[in-house]
Every structure is written in structure tokens, then in C-alpha cells.
Write a structure and sequence with these properties.
It is a single chain. This protein has seven helices and 17 strands. It is an alpha/beta fold and about 270 residues long. The chain has a seven-stranded mixed beta sheet with strand order 10-9-8-7-11-12-15, with helices on both faces. A hairpin with a 5-residue loop joins strand 16 and strand 17.
């Protein structure tokens, strides 16, 4: 049985006693874009690029976030929890539980495709030197995340929706001119519609298993117990069986079609 034919076996999750939140102190806050900030803390975590942590904002909520380095998370302000996080300052405390899930596989010639804040979980792989080229997309030049850092480690191509930097259009447009034979894998993270367009491109090219996609889903426990992040039809849990999934697995799932809210109801992307 080949790698692409082999099924992903859902895990049975982890006991609820696994990993309580670790208190960390915020030591630095960097405004990356008008809507994104990096929060650096006073503890170093060992992790695989693509893994995530559950971030507890005391008195508010606990939410999943990818590590952008061993001691930082990079966050887009989108809801109550992230708004509360944005109100914190240096010296304040938060809780970190994890890291959880899988990460991107070991590779040496990677094409990374990032949309918006999706550049955050890809940044550690770029810094590790495994990314041969990165395609970075955003709505506008001011919303591009980490362009200077990325171009210092790898070849960078940029697209913006409004044409204020690089190619005018979506980041998937840049993929058309790439020779896929130059790469071992494609690592992708960003808005799900964008990632679905990348997967559709790979399916049409006959190589969906070449792509690895980092999913974002609503999570409660982060350890595969509650099932709130399960995806149709196999029931894989994004927190435990993901968040990184191979493209040939995702092409037969709900990926790119819908997700679920806190009550489990389907919601359009």
C-alpha cells in the first residue's frame, strides 16, 4: 500500500489529565499588521512547526493558536478572546497548554503557501531552512505578514488582492507558474477557501498527496476528547489527528465546504 493509499486512522484522544495550562508572562508585544500582533512570553516550548497550543486568557476563554516560534504566538484580532488578548500588556499573564496535534512532515524542498495570518505556523519551517520558496498573500501591502523575515530565509513571491504589493490577485495565482517537480512537499496555511483552491490545483495536477494543509476548527479540549473539531465524513479530530492533514485525505472531506460553530451546527465558509 502506498503512502497516498494508506488511510489516516483516527486517534482515541488523550485523558483529560494531560497537560494543565502553564502560566507564562508576556514579555513583548509586536504590532505586525493593523490586525495582527505577536505576543512573546517567558517560556520556551519544544514543538514541531504546525503544532498548536491552547491559549487561556484568564476570565475570558481558551482558544487554539499556532506557535510562530518556540516562545511566541501571532494572533489576528477576530473575536472576543483575541480582542481580550489584544487588551493585555507586557507583564500580564496568560496560560499555555500544549503543544498539541501533529505538525508538518520532515522535508528539504518545500513550497510554502501562506495567506494572511497563515504565515504564522509556516514561519518556523521557513526559519528551519526547509522552505525553498514561499508564496505570500494578503488583502493589501500593509496586511502582509512577515515579508522581511521570510525573504531573509527563502525566495519570496507576493500577491495582494488590491495590487498594492506584488501580483494583483490571490496567492493561488502565483502557484500556476511554479514547477512542482522542484519541490518535495507543499505546506499551506491560510483562509480555508484559499487552501481549498490550492488543493483543487493539486488534484487537477494529479498530486494532492503532495500538499499538507493546516486546518483551523472550533476546539474545546484540544486533546481529542470532546469531538467538537471532528470533520466529516471520517470523524477525524483536527486537534488530535491534525491540525495538519495531507491533501489526498482532505479532498474527500468537508474541507472547503463548511465548518461548525460552538453548538456543532454547520456554517458556510
Amino acid at each position: 500500500m502506498t503512502e497516498e493509499e494508506s488511510p489516516l486512522i483516527p486517534s482515541w484522544g488523550a485523558p483529560m489529565t494531560e497537560r494543565l495550562p502553564v502560566p507564562v508572562r508576556i514579555t513583548g508585544i509586536t504590532k505586525e499588521t493593523p490586525s495582527v500582533r505577536t505576543f512573546t512570553f517567558d517560556r520556551i516550548f519544544s514543538f514541531i512547526p504546525g503544532q498548536f497550543v491552547m491559549v487561556w486568557i484568564p476570565g475570558v476563554d481558551e482558544v487554539p493558536m499556532a506557535l510562530s516560534s518556540s516562545s511566541s504566538i501571532t494572533v489576528q484580532r477576530v473575536g472576543d478572546a483575541t480582542s481580550a488578548l489584544f487588551s493585555l500588556k507586557e507583564g500580564d499573564m496568560i496560560g499555555i497548554r500544549g503543544p498539541f496535534g501533529n505538525g508538518f512532515p520532515e522535508a528539504h524542498r518545500v513550497l510554502a503557501i501562506a495567506g494572511g495570518v497563515g504565515a504564522a505556523p509556516l514561519l518556523p519551517a521557513v526559519r528551519a531552512g526547509v522552505v525553498k520558496k514561499c508564496l505570500l498573500g494578503a488583502r493589501s501591502a500593509e496586511e502582509l505578514l512577515f515579508p522581511r523575515i521570510l525573504e531573509s530565509f527563502t525566495e519570496l513571491s507576493v500577491s495582494t488582492d488590491d495590487g498594492t504589493c506584488g501580483h494583483r490577485g490571490v496567492v493561488v495565482d502565483l502557484l500556476v507558474s511554479e514547477d512542482l517537480d522542484l519541490y518535495d512537499h507543499i505546506f499551506c496555511c491560510g483562509p480555508e477557501r484559499m487552501m481549498k483552491a490550492v488543493l483543487d490545483f493539486l488534484v487537477h495536477a494529479g498530486c494532492p498527496g503532495m500538499g499538507y494543509f493546516s486546518l483551523h476548527r472550533y476546539m474545546k479540549c484540544g486533546m481529542g476528547v470532546c469531538g467538537s473539531c471532528a470533520i466529516d465524513p471520517e470523524g477525524f479530530r483536527v486537534c488530535r489527528d491534525g491540525p495538519v492533514f495531507r491533501g489526498d485525505i482532505l479532498k474527500r472531506s468537508e474541507f472547503g465546504h463548511y465548518s461548525r460553530d460552538a453548538s456543532g451546527r454547520r456554517r458556510p465558509l
